[in-house]
Write a structure and sequence with these properties.
It contains three helices and seven strands. It has about 140 residues and is an alpha+beta fold. Strands 1-7-6-5-4-3-2 form a seven-stranded antiparallel β-sheet, covered by helices on one side. Helix 2 packs across helix 3. The longest helix is centred in the C-terminal third of the chain and has 26 residues.
Length: about 140
C-alpha cells in the first residue's frame, strides 16, 4: 500500500478550516509534526502555484521542501504535489458535518516500497499535523 489516510473532525466551519490552510502565515504556524517550525520562501496558494519552504526540526536540522499546489477547489479540497524527495501527493478534503468539519488527509507515495520506509514517520506526523491544524483553525 502506497497511501496513508487519516481524518479528524474539527469543531469549526469549513471556511474557518480552509482559512487556516490557505493563508500562508497561518499555514506556516501549523504545518508539520509537533516541534517543527517553518520558513516559507514562496507560497503561491493557487492551482499550479509553487510552495517552497524549510522545515526546522526540534533536532536543529533543516529540511528543505519543494511543492506545487496541484489543485485547489476552495473551500473543499487542496492537493499538494511534493516534488522534492520523498515524492508524494497529499489531498486534503474538507466536508461540513453537524459538529463542524471533517478533514480527510490522503498521502500517496510514488511506490509501496517508499511508503513502507516512510510509515514510521508519516503515520504519527500526519496525526500531529491534524492536531496543529485544529488548533490553528480554532484560533480567534
Amino acid at each position: 500500500m502506497s497511501a496513508f489516510t487519516t481524518s479528524r473532525e474539527i469543531p469549526a466551519t469549513v471556511e474557518q478550516v480552509f482559512a487556516a490552510i490557505s493563508d500562508p502565515t497561518r499555514l506556516a504556524r501549523w504545518w508539520g509534526p509537533a516541534g517543527f517550525s517553518n520558513t516559507f520562501d514562496v507560497c503561491e496558494f493557487r492551482t499550479g502555484g509553487r510552495w517552497a519552504f524549510t522545515m526546522h526540526g526540534p533536532d536543529g536540522k533543516h529540511y528543505p521542501n519543494e511543492n506545487v499546489f496541484a489543485e485547489i477547489a476552495a473551500p473543499a479540497k487542496v492537493v499538494v504535489q511534493h516534488v522534492s524527495q520523498p515524492k508524494f501527493h497529499l489531498t486534503i478534503s474538507l466536508a461540513a458535518t453537524p459538529a463542524g468539519t471533517r478533514v480527510s488527509w490522503l498521502q500517496q507515495f510514488e511506490s509501496d516500497e517508499l511508503a513502507e520506509r516512510m510509515a514510521a514517520i508519516v503515520i504519527p506526523a500526519n496525526e500531529q499535523n491534524l492536531e496543529r491544524l485544529e488548533a490553528e483553525a480554532l484560533r480567534r
